[in-house]
Structure formats: structure tokens, C-alpha cells
Write a structure and sequence with these properties.
The chain has helices spanning 12-23, 39-47, 58-61, 77-84, 102-112, 156-168, 178-204, 209-214, 218-224, 231-240, 242-264, 268-289, and strands at 2-8, 27-33, 53-55, 67-70, 93-96, 119-124, 145-148, 172-175. It is of the alpha/beta class. The chain folds into 2 domains: 2-177, Rossmann fold (3-Layer(aba) Sandwich); 181-289, 6-phosphogluconate dehydrogenase C-terminal fold (Orthogonal Bundle). It has an 8-stranded mixed β-sheet with strand order 3-2-1-4-5-6-7-8. The chain is globular and about 70 Å long. It starts with a strand and ends with a helix. It binds nicotinamide-adenine-dinucleotide and prephenic acid. Prephenic acid binds at residues 99, 125-129, 189, 226, 229.
Length: 292
């Protein structure tokens, strides 16, 4: 599909794209780019065979490439666009994997004036709590959803190419309006991460924390796995999508207040109905999307 692919930020997601693209024969050569402080990770990526080579000079990284994938934290994307602007080529396709898409479109508008028609923002709904190239795997995107949020002026050929690229990496691709994407992901990804971070933050600050963690078992571990995610990545995501997240936090506070009231008034019937509604809703979601 591509002769030369450039990955800016060869971490969990960038590294997994490189591994899967190589495994599927989607490109002949993969070059990684990063800053001086990313060099150790890039060296590891090269030694693992995830990328063919790396450079700390962006002009060399994007020379003669057919596709550039930006896989850095969302807050860095505006500065990456600024650095790419003088090097931008009409012969290449540009995409990113940021977890928020409104911020990527806004950054492109700010840097370029209008979103370039060969920029196709994308978001794999797949990941892990671990970071860096050592966490990357070749099947991360297999049978996982991926959302493309093209601007109105996007080139249909570029959109089509990115869609096919992700399908060949194993993803189930949907095309979505940017605002809708950010609203849906606030509920399904951002709020759950905030909840997990908040719970562990609260419990971790308690005096009896060592005892709490000593007796924590499966439920606690399942619920809080994502609180091991990278704090830098998640502060960026939450800040970029706060307008969608804050109203959801308000709603959740209302739900917790309701449960508190039911306990205070010994309303075990309503408590049972609330838990039953949630259990059934989750089962419907599992049946519909996972068949298990
Ligand atoms: N982790 C997930 O579950 C997940 C899932 C979907 C999308 N995403 C998105 O993918 C992107 C990357 O996340 P990740 O989990 O792969 O993170 P990561 O930390 O594993 O990888 C990011 C890489 O980018 C490099 N980097 C950081 N700032 C840079 C800069 N200014 N210039 C060049 N390189 C830079 C880092 O060295 C690192 O190797 C983020 O935008 C995130 O929102 C993450
Ligand atoms: O499985 C995980 O650890 C994830 O956090 C993956 C997850 C999510 O489902 O919330 C995290 C961020 C993304 O942008 C997409 C996927």
C-alpha cells in the first residue's frame, strides 16, 4: 500500500501500527521519528525490528514518505503540525491516532488555516494501560473498532486509503462526525478512566491504604486496571475533551447521590432495581457487540 511509512511517536500505538503494517505487508520501509528524549525508545524499536530506522530530524523522517502517522499524546499534535507545515507534501497522506478528535481538527485549523485535504484523523478504539514500544503488539487492532473523523473538505481518495489501511490492520472502521466522536468517547473511555483514577487516588490517600490494597481482589483489580495508564496521556485527553466530560461527571455525581439516598433510606428494592438495570444493560451490550 505504501512504500515508505513514517511513524511520529513509536510507542504502544505507533509501535503496534508498525508491527501490524509490516506483518500484513502494507509497506516496504518504516521510519520512526522522535525527539532527543525519545531516542532510547526509538533505539529499542529498531532493535526489536518494529521500525527499519529512526531519525531525530523531521525533514529526514518525512522525506519521500507516502504516509505519516502521528502517534504522540494529543497535546503535542499542534506542535507536530507546526513542525510538519514547511515539509507538508501533497503526495503523502497524513493521519493521527489521538484519543480526542476535536482537538486535532482545531490544531490543524490553527496551524494550516484550513484542515489540509490529505489529513485524515483516526482513532483506534484499542489500547492498553502500558506505554512505549515494548508494550506494542502486532494484533492490537484485530477486530477492534476504529473511527475516522474526516473534515468536510477531506480528499475522498485519502479517506478511502486510510480506511483500507486500518481494515488491513484488522480494524472495523466507522466514519463519524468529530463532535459525535468526542461525545461518545467521553462516556465510554474518558469518564471510566477518570473514575478509576479517582477511586485509586481516594483510597491511596487513606491512612489504612496498605491494608486496603492487601485485601483487594479481582473486582478491585478489574475496575482499576486503567488507573495504571499514563498520567501525561490522560491529563491531555481530559483537558482536550473537558466540555464533554464535565457534564458526565455531574450526571455521575447524581447517580452516586441516588445510591447514597437509597442506602440511607434502606430502600433495598430500588437498589436492587438499579443494579439489575445496570446488569441487564451491560449484558445487552455484551450480546450485541461481543457475543459473549
Ligand atoms: N494507549 C491507548 O490505549 C490509546 C488508544 C488509542 C489511542 N491512543 C492515542 O495514541 C497516542 C499515543 O498513545 P500511546 O499509548 O501510544 O503512548 P506512548 O507513550 O506509548 O507513545 C507515545 C510516543 O510518542 C513519543 N512522543 C511524545 N511526545 C512527542 C513529541 N512531541 N514528538 C515526537 N514524539 C513524541 C514518546 O516518546 C512515545 O514513544 C495518544 O494520542 C493517545 O491518545 C492511545
Ligand atoms: O484498554 C485500555 O487500557 C484502554 O484504555 C483503551 C482505550 C479505552 O478503551 O478507553 C483508551 C484510550 C483510547 O483512546 C482507546 C481505547
Amino acid at each position: 500500500m505504501f512504500n515508505r511509512l513514517c511513524i511520529i511517536g513509536v510507542g504502544l500505538i505507533g509501535g503496534s501500527i508498525a508491527r501490524a503494517a509490516r506483518q500484513q505487508g502494507l509497506c516496504n520501509n518504516i521510519v520512526g521519528y522522535g525527539r532527543k528524549l525519545d531516542e532510547q525508545n526509538l533505539k529499542t524499536a529498531k532493535s526489536l525490528g518494529v521500525i527499519d530506522d529512526y531519525t531525530l530530524e523531521l525533514d529526514k523522517a518525512v522525506q519521500d514518505v507516502d504516509c505519516v502517522v502521528i502517534a504522540t499524546p494529543v497535546a503535542s499534535i499542534e506542535s507536530i503540525f507546526t513542525q510538519l507545515k514547511p515539509l507538508w507534501s501533497n503526495d503523502a497522506i497524513y493521519t493521527d491516532v489521538g484519543s480526542t478528535k476535536g482537538s486535532v481538527i482545531a490544531a490543524a485549523q490553527k496551524v494550516f488555516g484550513v484542515v489540509p485535504d490529505n489529513l485524515v484523523p483516526a482513532h483506534p478504539i484499542a489500547g492498553a494501560e502500558n506505554s512505549g514500544v515494548t508494550a506494542s503488539v502486532d494484533d492490537l487492532f484485530l477486530n477492534k473498532r476504529l473511527i475516522i473523523t474526516p473534515a468536510d473538505n477531506a480528499s475522498p481518495e485519502a479517506v478511502q486509503k486510510i480506511q483500507v489501511f486500518w481494515e488491513r490492520l484488522g480494524s472495523l472502521v466507522s466514519v463519524m462526525d468529530v463532535q459525535h466522536h468526542d461525545s461518545v468517547l467521553a462516556a465510554t473511555s474518558h469518564l471510566p478512566h477518570i473514575l478509576a483514577f479517582a477511586l485509586v487516588d481516594m483510597l491511596g490517600h487513606k491512612d489504612e491504604q496498605s491494608e486496603i490494597f492487601q485485601y483487594a481482589a479481582g473486582g478491585f483489580k478489574d475496575f482499576t486496571r486503567i488507573a495504571s495508564s499514563d498520567p501525561t496521556m490522560w491529563k491531555d485527553i481530559c483537558a482536550a475533551n473537558k466540555d464533554e466530560i464535565i457534564p458526565l461527571i455531574e450526571q455521575l455525581k447524581g447517580e452516586l447521590d441516588k445510591i447514597q439516598r437509597l442506602l440511607e433510606t434502606n430502600d433495598s428494592q430500588q437498589l436492587f432495581e438499579t443494579f439489575t438495570y445496570a446488569k441487564n444493560a451491560r449484558q445487552r451490550f455484551l450480546d450485541q457487540f461481543y457475543n459473549n
